[in-house]
Amino acid sequence: xxxxxxxxxxxxxxxxxxxxxxxxxxxxxxxxxxxxxxxxxxxxxxxxxxxxxxxxxxxxxxxxxxxxxxxxxxxxxxxxxxxxxxxxxxxxxxxxxxxxxxxxxxxxxxxxxxxxxxxxxxxxxxxxxxxxxxxxxxxxxxxxxxxxxxxxxxxxxxxxxxxxxxxxxxxxxxxxxxxxxxxxxxxxxxxxxxxxxxxxxxxxxxxxxxxxxxxxxxxxxxxxxxxxxxxxxxxxxxxxxxxxxxxxxxxxxxxxxxxxxxxxxxxxxxxxxxxxxxxxxxxxxxxxxxxxxxxxxxxxxxxxxxxxxxxxxxxxxxxxxxxxxxxxxxxxxxxxxxxxxxxxxxxxxxxxxxxxxxxxxxxxxxxxxxxxxxxxxxxxxxxxxxxxxxxxxxxxxxxxxxxxxxxxxxxxxxxxxxxxxxxxxxxxxxxxxxxxxxxxxxxxxxxxxxxxxxxxxxxxxxxxxxxxxxxxxxxxxxxxxxxxxxxxxxxxxxxxxxxxxxxxxxxxxxxxxxxxxxxxxxxxxxxxxxxxxxxxxxxxxxxxxxxxxxxxxxxxxxxxxxxxxxxxxxxxxxxxxxxxxxxxxxxxxx
Length: 590
What we know:
By secondary structure, the chain is an alpha/beta fold. It folds into three domains: 2-23 and 145-250, 3-Layer(bba) Sandwich (Glucose Oxidase, domain 1), CATH 3.50.30; 35-140, Orthogonal Bundle (Enzyme I, Chain A, domain 2); 253-578, Phosphoenolpyruvate-binding domains (TIM Barrel, Alpha-Beta Barrel), CATH 3.20.20. The N and C termini lie close together (5 Å).
């Protein structure tokens, strides 16, 4: 028996036979062509690209509406990206390289320039997927997506292209999904959660250990994967599955109840989403609103900037689908290296460069297009605008001036706009947290973006496997930054929420309650568990837990104490080692 531990990406337990999918990259031949072959080689590349676009369109059509639509559309536009095509064609003309090698080289260079900052780092995988599809067409290999399991199986892959994941998950034959690589924010993980298929990513050597037909057990809630488990382990997983199904049903009994503590403290529970198709999941899990709607997808993998009408259509749709519940839409969090072709710039360190509000203030027309659309869409629901990466009062004032200017422009044009639209900011840097009392005087609400805040506070790249173990939400310095943010908000009388991964972990729920956050925004599927913790606790107990935890000096002591106490109080909701253990991707063989 082999035991692996990966990253829990979609909750649930699956037990079944392995259906392996070989997603290792094709071996790309490298050779030189003759000068008189240049035009035919370019024609061969064009043909492979058009075939890739056709394949993606066929996959989209066969699957119908759903989470995969936006993703497959983006891949189709990326395949047609003239920057990638022209770069490869230039190598063919100038260096007489074959089309396969030229394409792979250009994509590798583009991928390296994209940086490694959080959410957008995942989009590098999209670029690689599209490249692989084109290369497979060039060398004449049949796309993997044509192969489906004959019987319900657990899919195991080294890695999985988004289009392939969409086909496999939509087939109804995927009991579960395990990949060697990936993260919780990859498109494969998002699709698995949307389709409620248990999924573990980053499981190390799963594709090497698990062979076709092997029995495999997968726990998407803990990240545990067992290959060829014995009868006792199978029984344990079957019991875990039954318990999980019972627990989920039990948790959903509270779906329509508010998250109110035993002593009357109310905490709002919102959802983080990336695509409009996620709204049904928000409502099904009891989400009271959307605390973070990312707008980056409108800009990615396309040739031109999105128009005002494209923005407006997307925002109006999400507001209407949320049925008058609050929707916090974040203005675009991009840098010049992530924009459509023809608008890009490159920086040595995008995460610390011209990104988010810094970038939009530098490019007012781009900002104005999005702001006009947001203001126009405000009549379709309860809109709140959130500005990312604000680090100084001056930035906030300048951004608010742009919003007011766009408002006045629309009013002069006779456009209808909601009478009041709250404007808030994300606190993502230590500087912003420490200056929260001054920033709070200038806006309507705060949202603590812990994904970036922890990264900047601890000076680590959470996407770097070498230092990922240092990414610790319960670090004393991080807790003090959050407390400073809350204190600043309370002093000014504005609401403060949290929208990072930390907010959706039930192990941290009482710590966040004690810190005084008004709203927690998370993955929709995490809402029921966090709600159960809050409805079962008292503020006084939460404060005692926080006080005792912060009496320790090391993060190991703080984390150990909090997780031990939470597991003791909520054994069905908090694993003994907490979620952090699942990030290690370890493998044990028995």
